[in-house]
């Protein structure tokens, strides 16, 4: 008996979904039953941003996603070098002047 054949999942990816949606901010909230990740597209100088996609996960799936991201980031950095993190929590100043000391 071929166990690999029984464990395969056929995943369909439509042309529209394959294009993807750009996001430069993720907002994560949770309750006792689920994690909600809102993927947002922010534009420089525009104070209003739109949620482009919302993903709702069980806590178990959220933890598995975190592990998968950690593993894939490690693999990426092993090939391409460390990913530099931004000092800001948001990708833009939202049109406000930059603070100066």
How is the secondary structure organized here?
Blueprint: H1 3-7, H2 15-18, E1 25-30, E2 35-41, E3 50-57, H3 59-80
Antiparallel strand pairs: 1-2, 2-3
Structure explained in plain terms:
The structure is a single chain. This protein is an alpha+beta fold. It has a domain at 15-80. The chain is built from 3 helices and 3 strands. A 3-stranded antiparallel β-sheet has the order 1-2-3. The radius of gyration is 18 Å and the shape is extended. It starts with a helix and ends in a 21-residue tail after the last helix.
Structure summary:
The chain has 101 residues and is of the alpha+beta class. Helices cover 31% and strands 21% of the residues.
Features:
101 residues, alpha+beta, 3-stranded antiparallel β-sheet, 31% helix, extended, disordered C terminus
Strand percent estimate: 15-25%
The side-by-side strand order for the widest beta sheet comes to 1-2-3
Overall strand count: 3
Low-confidence stretches: 92-101
In DSSP terms (H or I, runs of 4 or more residues), the helix count works out at 3
Question: Which structural class is indicated by helix and strand composition?
Answer: alpha+beta
The pLDDT mean sits at 86
Distance between the termini: 70 Å
| Helix-strand topology string | HHEEEH
**In percent, how helical is the residue content?**
25-40%
Shape: extended
What kind of sheet is the major sheet? 3 strands, antiparallel
Radius of gyration: 18 Å
């Amino acid at each position: 008996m071929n166990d690999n054949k029984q464990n395969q999942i056929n995943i369909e990816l439509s042309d529209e979904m394959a294009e993807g949606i750009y996001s430069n901010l993720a907002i994560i909230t949770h309750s006792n039953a689920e994690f909600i990740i809102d993927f947002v597209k922010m534009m420089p100088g525009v104070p209003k941003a739109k949620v482009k996609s919302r993903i709702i996960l069980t806590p178990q799936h959220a933890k598995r996603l975190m592990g998968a991201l950690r593993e894939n980031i490690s693999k990426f950095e092993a090939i391409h070098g460390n990913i530099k993190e931004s000092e800001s929590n948001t990708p833009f100043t939202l049109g406000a002047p930059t603070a100066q000391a």
